[in-house]
């Protein structure tokens, strides 16, 4: 659900995942939300219309976290399948995949394109996204 912070009421109800939501990120412009789910997918939501624009399919296990880059063009996701994936928001296509040795549990994207992913074994992975 999306709540109206001024009234405290429900503004939108977004439905589409088949399992729990583990993480949500919002684009810098506030127009798009991306949800990560235990159903192995992410969904890119149009918040003005309340509909899913695209499903991001490629992970083979629960998606644990999601982050959006500073320009709002790419999404990073991490999952129990030991992968970090970069996606293009506009078309939902994968841009890159990194495979680690342990399930990935957290991620963050910096303004400079630096992606940091944490894994279940306590490791941190620093990956530099190419500009463009």
Describe the structure in your own words.
The protein is mainly β and 132 residues long. The chain has one domain (2-128): Methylamine Dehydrogenase, Chain H (7 Propeller). It has no helices and 13 strands. The chain has strands spanning 2-3, 10-12, 21-26, 32-37, 41-46, 51-57, 63-68, 74-79, 83-88, 94-99, 104-109, 114-119, 124-128. The chain has a 4-stranded antiparallel beta sheet with strand order 3-4-5-6, with no helix packed on it. Strands 7-8-9-10 form a 4-stranded antiparallel beta sheet, with no helix packed on it. Strands 11-12-13 form a 3-stranded antiparallel beta sheet, with no helix packed on it. Strand 3 (21-26) and strand 4 (32-37) form a beta hairpin. The chain is globular and about 45 Å long.
State the gist of this model.
By secondary structure, this protein is mostly beta strands. 0% of the residues lie in helices and 54% in strands.
Short descriptors:
132 residues; mainly beta; 4-stranded antiparallel beta sheet; 13 strands; globular
Low-confidence stretches: none
Counted up, domains total 1
> What structural class do helix, strand and pairing data support?
mainly beta
Name of the CATH homologous superfamily: YVTN repeat-like/Quinoprotein amine dehydrogenase
Query: Considering DSSP H and I runs of 4 or more, what fraction of the residues is helical?
Result: under 10%
The number of E-state strands comes to: 13
